């Protein structure tokens, strides 16, 4: 333990241990070995971070002009790009995601900071013509204040960029709370923020278990909350936030449908199905965990998906050739295995995988084979509940209407995939899907400019794209009377 790096909280202009000195071990999912120590913050640490953010907001950051904020954000992007390899290696060690993906995520995060830097000096209001010409009316867009940003363990830096970039562009200060399961890269990223030149208190980081998140989301001096994580935790945060009427943006779970029609390009669709569920070992909210296949091509697609699943290279996520690494945590590993076992007993047909891979390297890590179930009932647990692992449920359908009904037949509504060469069908089906986003003839494709978020149990609000700024801005209306007209004080003026 003495050789492990011990990270510190970032509060105001200080790097510091938790107030009581307590730490948590960060576990490498490849070998179950502790490799870093992170602070277990206290409620007093959270309060200090919030107060530091408040002070920075009131005294400096809210009045910093957009060009200055943009310059700092561009410098942060420069530093992240130049430090991509180190940051990617840290994240791969922390959560087991393959290095070929974490490198891409670091670059995409940098792209987000550049995109929102472009908005920082363009947050203008609008002039509103009224019925009475002597009244001048206009709006301004002003930063909400102190934002609590709570991220998940599966993509810490990419998810943080979705929140932090628009928050900084809008003029908010932040307190970041990463998952205790993967906090190292967020603390390393805070070092880059300091090097970029952000004023003290603009970006603060507190780490630790759920008690830290509870102290942060329940803090009366937090002006908004942005959370990415499980639906149950999102509900708990919403309840806590209601005490102070704190606005909340939620990016929660998903049970996304990937719909393949008989006229689809099958090679393209099968590749999309594999990417949708086995990339990132299925540990992503946008996982296409339900593959809906039209009956005419059902057997063919099942066979091809299973063939591709069996060929996936599982192993050390640091290896350039590895395609799927381990589950991120012991708890998640057991959760996935339990889902697989229950699906077997509930009537789904195991078509591929379903086990812990054999071999010494797999025995030391949290590995699960890429798993495919066919002939899954649309109302079964496997088709309704988020597994958050490499487990695919394949469901047949006959008609377009049936596909839409199955796709919409869950509590979730994050994203969906749609595979067809019929343009009219693509538009028609996409409009009827109850989700925040639809991919047509692609899957798991992101852009900084494109808004992202869900409906129903998948959350509320949007990240990325210009719409994300609205989460961090308040609209203020100003009305000026240019006349000297006397008025009846007891009647509202219209």
TrEMBL record:
The active site is at residue 251. Residues 15-477 form the Aldehyde dehydrogenase domain. One of its GO terms (molecular function) is betaine-aldehyde dehydrogenase (NAD+) activity. Keywords: Oxidoreductase. Pfam families: Aldedh (PF00171). It is an enzyme of class 1 (oxidoreductase). Its EC number is 1.2.1.8. InterPro entries: Ald_DH/histidinol_DH (IPR016161), Ald_DH_C (IPR016163), Ald_DH_CS_CYS (IPR016160), Ald_DH_CS_GLU (IPR029510), Ald_DH_N (IPR016162), Aldehyde_DH_dom (IPR015590). Belongs to the aldehyde dehydrogenase family. This is NAD/NADP-dependent betaine aldehyde dehydrogenase.
